[in-house]
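> agent: user asked for a holo structure of the chain below bound to zinc ion. Plan: (1) validate sequence alphabet, (2) canonicalize SMILES, (3) run complex prediction with ligand conditioning, (4) return tokens. Step 1... ok. Step 2... ok. Step 3 dispatched.
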Amino acid sequence: MKDNNSLSKTRGRAGVSGSDLTVYACSVHTHTNLCDGKATPEEMAKTACAMGVKYYGFSGHSYTDCVSDRGNVLPFEPDAYKKRVLRLREEYENRDENRMEILLGIEMDNLSPMEIPPEGFDYWIGSVHHLIDNNLNNNNLINNNLDNDNLIDNKNSNKNSNKNINREYAVDWDREKFIICRDELFHGDVYAFAEEYYKQVGDMAEKKPDILGHFDLITKYNEDKSLIDENNLRYKTAALENLKRADINKSLLEINTGAMARGYRTKPYPADFILKAWREMGGRIIITADAHAPDKIVYGYDIAIESAKNAGFRESAVLTRSGVVMCKI
Ligand SMILES: [Zn+2]
Ligand SMILES: [Zn+2]
């Protein structure tokens, strides 16, 4: 996704001039029932347009071999998804009025066997949803006492998959699985868990996604601060050292309200100290809703704006098919 601070090109498609542009005109982290969302692409686009969104991006979850991802991610060859989104683009960009630009995106998972950057997309979000235990081999799985939903199904793995993957632990599935991951993979040391999680996030950041997804997803169930002390030096060091691996010129850091919309948190990702560090690095932000339902398309943007301002940001990105446009917040 190239940079473009001129709005002249974007006016044509979405009918927005620079001074009218706000962050509410852009929602590019969204899901549909083609992955784990609740509504069809058509329903999501229709509601977005009615809400006044001018730059709407679909970002279906990329394929993984994880058993728990079955039915929740796109197929390895997401051609049907692409066609469906591009059909909506035709419809919404060729209107006489109520035009909306449609971006074809994808949220790439750290365990996805798809190549990076993914081909044929306008943009991609880089996200870490899982940690894996590489020390296990297939025979160990038989003796494993975790429920089968947590295991990678090696028999049905895509031929392009990483064969070293044996077991996945979803970071964000629920509190119970978080604790199982902490205790089984890291012997109860939540800071070792955080160090490995952020290392994976840093690895993803080095692949230069257009958007770096929910940077501190590991805090999803930490609203009551009972799982992680986010002021712990090991925790902060892991987060900040890996934030530095991101390219401020290539990646936008998202302020993501998705967990607020689903009632897990009262504040968006990421935490203030991460946002402040990103600003000091000279990085740029984008506000996203990680919307899984039509009524969440710009959910919590007001709180995200406050969070951005609190960290010292004065601008946030709008993603367009012509590139990134910064607008005042
Ligand atoms: Zn995600
Ligand atoms: Zn998402």
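> agent: step 4 complete. Summary for user: Residues 6-12, 137-165 have pLDDT under 50 and may be disordered. The two ends are 22 Å apart (CA to CA).
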